[in-house]
Amino acid sequence: MGSLFRGEEMCLAQLFLQSGSAYDCISELGEMGLVEFRDLNPSVNCFHRKFVNEIKRCEAMERILGYLLREIKKADIPLPDRDVNPVAPLPKHVMATMEQLQRLEAELSEVTRNKEKLQKNLRELTEYTHMLRVTKNFVQRSSEHEPRQARYEEFPFLEKDAALDYTSMQRLGAKLGFISGLIQRPKIEAFERMLWRVCKGYTILSYSEIDEYLEDPDTGEPTKSVVFLISYWGELIGQKVKKICDCYHCHLYPYPSSSEERTDVVEGLGTRIQDLHTVLLRTDDYLRQVLKKASESVYMWYIQVKKMKAIYYILNLCSFDVTNKCLIAEVWCPVGDLVNVRRSLEEGSRKSGATVPSFVNRIPSNDTPPTLIRTNKFTSGFQNIVDAYGVGSYREVNPAPFTIITFPFLFAVMFGDLGHGVIMALFAFWMVMCENNRKLKHTRNEIWNTFFEGRYIILLMGMFSIYTGLIYNDCFSKSLNLFGSGWSAKAMFTANVWTDADIGANRFLSLDPNITGVFTGPYPLGIDPIWNLASNRLTFLNSYKMKMSVILGIVHMSFGVILSIYNHLHFRKKYNLYLVFLPELLFLWCLFGYLVFMVVYKWLAFSASESRSAPSILIHFINMFLMQGGASQPLYPGQAGLQVFLLVMALLSVPILLLGKPLYLYWLHNGGRHLGMYRGYERVRRGSEEELSLMRAHDMEEGSSHSDLSTSREHQIDEINFADEFLHQSIHTIEYCLGCVSNTASYLRLWALSLAHAQLSEVLWGMVMRVGLRVDNSLGILFLVPVFGLFAVLTVSILLVMEGLSAFLHALRLHWVEFQNKFYSGTGIKFSPFSFSLLPSSFDHDGFL
Q: Are 443 and 495 in contact (CB under 8 A)?
């Protein structure tokens, strides 16, 4: 809890790594994930660093592994279990792994190229077979040919019928030619128009669509193709036709000149196709065996290459000493983990067999350390909510442990429904039970990943919604009478207030709680179910939820202001307690805390018989600012004087908040010359060497120090700027005072969204489910099935998903703006340790693993 409440204490350390053991020491640190390395070579280009060649070698191996993974995925071969976690390979073993991967890549490339060539030949032979089969009926040659005598006409007549008499063209004395092939179905119309325009009608095009789907050589997808046969007149026309076919990417095949030649070609094609199928089957088997063998080790190689590349990247951040025998690194490390860092360096030196051990030294620094907050699978989701607003400053109070309770509770206040909460909780509970399922954890669906990572948030939101649903007594817009209503209509008849005639003459009758027996006591848990039948139900819930929202908002903001105490005390700025914290709390409580007091007092002081004469809280609150305490009936004795006192206290807290801190710092700057300053908020005598030494030791524990404590006061004098301090405090004062008003009004969203959710649920029940329940004939049950299905779909899509997302976003805003800005700055830098488990990978992004 200590680490979650406040970030870990960090320190800057210096690692001295011997050249022979640096690789193993960095490997051990990467397995532990305890330190964040700083770049000691910021001015050196990435391509000019020491280990750039090793990184290029790792990238070459990553390229080969990517090629292997693509082929394995294409062959649909499952990868083995990924629970293995091999250590980074030694540098002397890297070349052997590199050669093994290169041999495997060359073998796979050769087999794949041969397979592609065989598939291309098979595709061409298949297309040729279809072409011969379809074009067989295009041309019918006559058995007898007339003598080929040259006859010339100025305008030759070309018939376009499917069965053509080519002797009419042969009489013209021109040489006929044939071009046959296949073209994709969408291109045939444009192809036909182009032939007609270019060849001026001196061609005859016949085509027919193939019934079967053929594989597209470019995309590999099945497509529809068309077989065509072009008869042309003259060699010049034939050249134009071939160029047009090339432009349209037609697959051209030779056309046999006789039926005997056609028969021989078809028989030869059948034999060759059968042989190619046999060879392709054996090639596939061999390729699958190679890929299956590679799949057994590919994940281990992937882990090793990833770790090796990360190690060399870290080594490039280090600098060499003057002898080039030792690498020096600077790291941020949690103070509590320094012992583990030393053990990791000792283990790395032992594995490498170095005679000189590597070691770590803690060094002072004035730089702001990064923020480390340790989380687990339960708290990580809530910490992400806080970090989305901003990473906490070093060692300031972390809102995450309080968000675990307040966030789902405020969500449930807006989403309160017992039935909807049960559905949400069951869905989250299923995700929690299946949290170790690899298929659910590693998906490429970002929306699902968001839900799965926040499964514990959804679980708590569902459980708190069940609780608020019981308080609202609302389950799918219906009330549950679990303990029996505290209201009784029988007493109205017993007291002769109601008669049977009143029942028949009036649609609505009002129960009078002042009559004995009508109201026997409050409902044990939540709102009485009789309010679900009342005509003034919405008016009652409006008043109840609006006051509840204001009370929750004031309590939530006050808690945020109180948490700022821990920041002031931890950073040893005690003057902020009197000059910042107390004015803020007085301003909030004297105005809006008094409003909460009046709400509670009116609930407790006025009974049902006095309710009609009870004064309006809103009027009294407005009169408080107008100094008109006697203008209306007082709520309690002495109200006017108390309101004037509270208003004066609130007004006096504003100038204290505005001027107190800047004037105090100015006085310390100019008026405290006889005192020695340390950090601007503790005064020690210059001659007190014992206190200075104690502060110096404390600085070393905090990871910060002053190089010259005797001159610390001069540094503080240079840093203090009254104008800047006054400007910052003015902005803070205006923001806080106006924010108290706007933030209090902002909490009314709890009331608005709660009513909206309840009304949407009631409308959905009335317009869908009630229609199915009113059908009382024999078909009512059958009609109820689709109605219930529609009701379930609309409930999940509208009330759970859309309304749930809306309530989630509003609860997020209440925490970020209204709660966290009271004590949380969120201007820190997140601690990013060097850990192999946190390294990103392009293979994971591409979906290979």
A: no
